[in-house]
Amino acid sequence: MYSALQMNPQADLRTTVFVGNVAVFCTEAEINQLFSTCGEVLEIRLAKSDDFSKHLSYGFVKFSTVAGAQLAMQRLNGAVLCGRTLK
């Protein structure tokens, strides 16, 4: 048995969006609330500090469809979340 990523590694790249300049106090729930306006969010991964006490102001949002990821890139690049402009 293979995961979808093993069968088609490019599929994961097309449905995953990099999110930069995330406020360190911003929660996954707040990120999900914003990004789910563009499509179904499957996963949010925030880069963590070495001691896992906080995230490092960037992460990745994985959508269920390529269309959702593309819409997020169009609509949310430059959006303000938790007082910071997303990149």
Task: Characterize the structure shown.
The N and C termini lie far apart (37 Å). A hairpin with a 2-residue loop joins strand 4 and strand 5. The protein has one domain: Alpha-Beta Plaits (2-Layer Sandwich), CATH 3.30.70.330. The strands form two sheets. Strands 1-3-2 form a three-stranded antiparallel β-sheet. The chain has a two-stranded antiparallel sheet with strand order 4-5. By secondary structure, the chain is α+β, with helices and mostly antiparallel strands.
- Could you give the distance between the termini? 37 Å
- CATH topology descriptor: Alpha-Beta Plaits
List the domain count as a whole number. Answer: 1
What's the CATH superfamily, by name?
Answer: RRM (RNA recognition motif) domain
Q: Please state the second-level CATH architecture.
A: 2-Layer Sandwich
Query: Could you name the CATH class?
Result: Alpha Beta
Count every helix, treating DSSP H or I runs of 4 or more residues as helices. 4
Strand content: 25-35%
Order of helices and strands: HHEHEEHEE
Strand order of the largest sheet: 1-3-2
**What's the pLDDT, averaged over the residues?**
87
Which term fits the overall shape? globular
- Classification by helices and strands: alpha+beta
Percentage of residues assigned to helices = 25-40%
Q: For the report, how would you describe the main beta sheet?
A: 3 strands, antiparallel
Note poorly predicted spans.
Answer: 1-7
Evaluate the radius of gyration.
Answer: 13 Å
Beta-strand segment tally:
5
